[in-house]
Design a protein that fits this description.
The chain is α+β, with helices and mostly antiparallel strands and 159 residues long. Helices cover 15% and strands 50% of the residues. It has one helix at residues 2-25; strands spanning 32-33, 36-42, 48-58, 61-72, 83-90, 95-100, 111-120, 126-138, 141-147, 156-158.
Amino acid sequence: MKHSRKFGISAAATAGALALAGLAFAPAAAAVAPGAATVSADCGIYGSGEATLTATQSGTTATITVTSSEITTPVAVEANTVNSTLKMSKAGGGTVEFTGSSNPAMPAGGGVNSGPLTGTVASGDTLDAFPGSVTLVVMGINVTCNSTGAQAPGPFVFD
């Protein structure tokens, strides 16, 4: 009995040491700052208002989720049925696109929620939602919302 108990403690200590060593050699997680920002958008006949962009980063893959309680859907929308493309302006010129078809179910009159939308970024990329747009394809209908001002706080800067 003593022998098996000793073995169990040794195995646990070895496993713990290996786990700590793995953490010591694991690559640092990339970060984006700020993690969230707001932007005003005009969606034409579908309304206008403020939207929140929430960003995360893992290596060269970035995700952004777009939510708004002010920009609403006129009809109920089932989960994972909205195809979205977010175009953001890149400092120095050009754009970066984030795409996806992940969304929760949204009731008629409920706020828009789309994402995470995925795109590719490089270290040091600085992206702003202005000028920019998000296009939502809902039941075959394209809804394009154009930003009407710079996001606040400032642009997203990716590691």
